[in-house]
Amino acid sequence: MLFARGSGDLSRLIESAYLSDDLISNISRYGNSAECREINKHLTNHFGSDQKLKILDIGAGNGITSVNFSLAGHSVLALEPDESNHVGAGAIQHLKDSFSLDNLEIVSAFAEDLDVGEQKFDLVFVRQAMHHANNLESFVKNTSRFLRAGGLYFTVRDHVIFDQKDKDLFLKSHPLHKFYGGENAYTSDEYRTALQNAGLQIASEIRYFESPINLAPLDLKDIEDRVAEELDNIKQKLKLKLGSFGGLDFVSWLYRKFKNDPMDWLDERKMPGRMYSYLSVKS
Question: Which CATH number is 2-217+269-282 given?
Answer without folding.
Answer: 3.40.50.150
